[in-house]
C-alpha cells in the first residue's frame, strides 16, 4: 500500500505541473490579447528604432562631443522634420483645395441640378436624383444614424494620435538605451558566443535598414510614374495625387491599390478618357510592381530571394493585415540570417561573420580579404 502511494506522488506532481503550465499559458495569451494594442506600438517602435540606430551611431562617432543622448536627439529631430515636411506637402494643398471646394460648392450643386459638368452628367445618366427622391426617408435615417460612427471615428483618431506619440517616445528610448541593454544581455553569454550574437544582430538590423531603403525607392518610382501619367492626361492637382499614391505605396502589395482608387476617381471626374487611361496604367503598373520591382529591389536591399519576398508578404498580410505587410520582409530577412548561421554551426563550418543573399556575401565588406582566403582561420563555433 505504501508503494502505491509513493508511485502516485510523481503522477500527482506531473499532473499538477501540466495543469499549472496550461493555466500559465492561458494567462499569458490573455495578457497578450488585453495588451495587444500596446504590443503593436512596441513592435512598430522597435522597427523604427532599428532603422534609426545606425544613423545615431554614425552621428555619435563623427561628432566631437560623443554624447549619445544628443546624437539621438538630433537624429530624431531630423526624422520628425522630414516627417513634418511630408505631411505639410500633403496636408497644406489639401486644405487649400478644401477651402476652394467649399467656395465652389454652390456652383457644383447647381450643375448637378441642371445635369451639367462631369458630376452632373453622371447624375443625369444613372438617374441618381430620382433614386435620392424615391429613398429620401431611408437616406435621412442613415444620416441620423451617423452620430455613433462619428464618435467612434473621433475616438479612433485620438487613439491614433496617442499611439504615434507613444511610438516616437518608445523608439527614442530604445535607441538611447540600446547599447547598455545589448551589453547587459550579451554579458550573460561567453565571449565567443556574445560576439557571434552581436554580428548576427547587426546583420538583422541591416535587413530592416535595407527594407526601408528599398521600400522608399519603390514608392518614389510609383509617385513619379503616377505624376507623369496624371500630368500628361491633364488631370488637376497631379502633384498632390501623386504624393498620396507614393505615400500609400509604402504599404506592400495593397498600397498601390489604395492610391489607385483615389487617382482613378479623380481622373474619371476629369473625363471618361482620362479615367480609362489612368485605370489601365495602374492595372499594368501594379502587376509590374508586385511581380517585378518589389521582388527584385527588395531581394537586393534585404538580400532575400524574390520568391521568398512574395511568399513572406502574402502570408504576413493574411496573418496580421497591414502591420504584417509592413514587417513581413524585414522579419523574413532576420529569419534567413539566423537560420543560415544556425545551419553553418550545425554543419561545423561557422563563419567569422554572417552572410546575406543566396551567394552568402559577407555583410562587412570592410574586413580584409585574406580573412576569407585562409590567412586567419575563423574561431571554432561556440558550443
TrEMBL record:
<keyword id="KW-0472">Membrane</keyword>
<dbReference type="GO" id="GO:0005886">
    <property type="term" value="C:plasma membrane"/>
</dbReference>
<keyword id="KW-1133">Transmembrane helix</keyword>
<dbReference type="Pfam" id="PF01594">
    <property type="entry name" value="AI-2E_transport"/>
</dbReference>
<feature type="compositionally biased region" description="Acidic residues">
    <location>
        <begin position="361"/>
        <end position="370"/>
    </location>
</feature>
<feature type="transmembrane region" description="Helical">
    <location>
        <begin position="216"/>
        <end position="248"/>
    </location>
</feature>
<feature type="transmembrane region" description="Helical">
    <location>
        <begin position="39"/>
        <end position="59"/>
    </location>
</feature>
<keyword id="KW-0813">Transport</keyword>
<feature type="region of interest" description="Disordered">
    <location>
        <begin position="348"/>
        <end position="383"/>
    </location>
</feature>
<protein>
    <submittedName>
        <fullName>AI-2E family transporter</fullName>
    </submittedName>
</protein>
<dbReference type="GO" id="GO:0055085">
    <property type="term" value="P:transmembrane transport"/>
</dbReference>
<keyword id="KW-0812">Transmembrane</keyword>
<dbReference type="InterPro" id="IPR002549">
    <property type="entry name" value="AI-2E-like"/>
</dbReference>
<feature type="transmembrane region" description="Helical">
    <location>
        <begin position="260"/>
        <end position="285"/>
    </location>
</feature>
<comment type="similarity">
    <text>Belongs to the autoinducer-2 exporter (AI-2E) (TC 2.A.86) family.</text>
</comment>
<feature type="transmembrane region" description="Helical">
    <location>
        <begin position="71"/>
        <end position="95"/>
    </location>
</feature>
<keyword id="KW-1003">Cell membrane</keyword>
<feature type="transmembrane region" description="Helical">
    <location>
        <begin position="12"/>
        <end position="33"/>
    </location>
</feature>
<feature type="transmembrane region" description="Helical">
    <location>
        <begin position="152"/>
        <end position="175"/>
    </location>
</feature>
Amino acid at each position: 500500500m505504501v508503494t502505491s502511494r509513493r508511485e502516485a506522488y510523481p503522477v500527482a506532481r506531473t499532473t499538477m505541473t501540466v495543469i499549472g503550465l496550461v493555466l500559465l499559458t492561458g494567462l499569458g495569451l490573455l495578457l497578450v490579447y488585453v495588451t495587444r494594442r500596446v504590443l503593436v506600438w512596441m513592435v512598430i517602435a522597435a522597427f523604427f528604432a532599428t532603422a534609426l540606430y545606425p544613423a545615431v551611431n554614425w552621428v555619435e562617432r563623427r561628432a566631437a562631443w560623443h554624447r549619445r543622448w544628443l546624437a539621438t536627439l538630433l537624429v530624431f529631430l531630423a526624422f520628425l522634420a522630414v516627417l513634418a515636411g511630408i505631411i505639410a506637402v500633403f496636408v497644406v494643398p489639401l486644405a487649400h483645395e478644401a477651402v476652394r471646394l467649399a467656395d465652389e460648392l454652390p456652383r457644383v450643386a447647381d450643375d448637378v441640378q441642371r445635369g451639367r459638368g462631369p458630376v452632373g452628367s453622371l447624375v443625369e445618366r444613372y438617374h441618381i436624383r430620382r433614386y435620392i427622391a424615391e429613398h429620401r426617408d431611408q437616406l435621412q435615417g442613415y444620416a441620423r444614424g451617423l452620430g455613433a460612427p462619428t464618435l467612434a471615428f473621433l475616438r479612433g483618431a485620438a487613439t491614433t494620435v496617442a499611439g504615434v506619440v507613444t511610438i516616437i517616445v518608445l523608439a527614442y528610448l530604445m535607441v538611447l538605451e540600446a547599447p547598455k541593454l545589448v551589453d547587459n544581455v550579451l554579458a550573460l553569454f561567453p565571449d565567443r558566443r556574445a560576439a557571434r550574437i552581436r554580428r548576427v544582430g547587426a546583420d538583422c538590423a541591416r535587413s530592416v535598414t535595407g527594407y526601408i531603403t528599398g521600400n522608399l525607392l519603390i514608392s518614389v518610382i510609383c509617385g513619379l510614374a503616377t505624376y507623369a501619367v496624371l500630368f500628361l492626361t491633364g488631370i488637376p492637382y497631379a502633384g498632390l495625387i501623386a504624393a498620396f499614391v507614393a505615400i500609400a505605396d509604402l504599404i506592400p502589395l495593397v498600397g498601390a491599390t489604395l492610391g489607385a482608387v483615389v487617382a482613378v476617381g479623380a481622373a474619371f471626374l476629369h473625363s471618361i478618357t482620362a479615367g480609362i487611361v489612368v485605370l489601365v496604367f495602374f492595372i499594368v503598373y501594379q502587376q509590374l510592381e508586385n511581380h517585378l520591382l518589389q521582388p527584385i529591389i527588395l531581394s537586393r536591399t534585404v538580400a532575400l530571394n524574390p520568391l521568398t519576398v512574395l511568399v513572406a508578404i502574402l502570408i504576413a498580410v493574411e496573418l496580421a493585415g497591414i502591420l504584417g505587410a509592413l514587417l513581413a520582409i524585414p522579419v523574413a530577412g532576420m529569419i534567413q540570417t539566423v537560420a543560415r548561421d544556425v545551419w553553418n554551426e550545425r554543419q561545423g563550418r561557422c563563419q567569422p561573420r554572417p552572410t546575406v543573399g543566396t551567394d552568402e556575401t559577407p555583410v562587412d565588406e570592410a574586413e580584409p580579404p585574406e580573412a576569407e582566403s585562409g590567412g586567419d582561420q575563423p574561431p571554432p563555433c561556440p558550443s
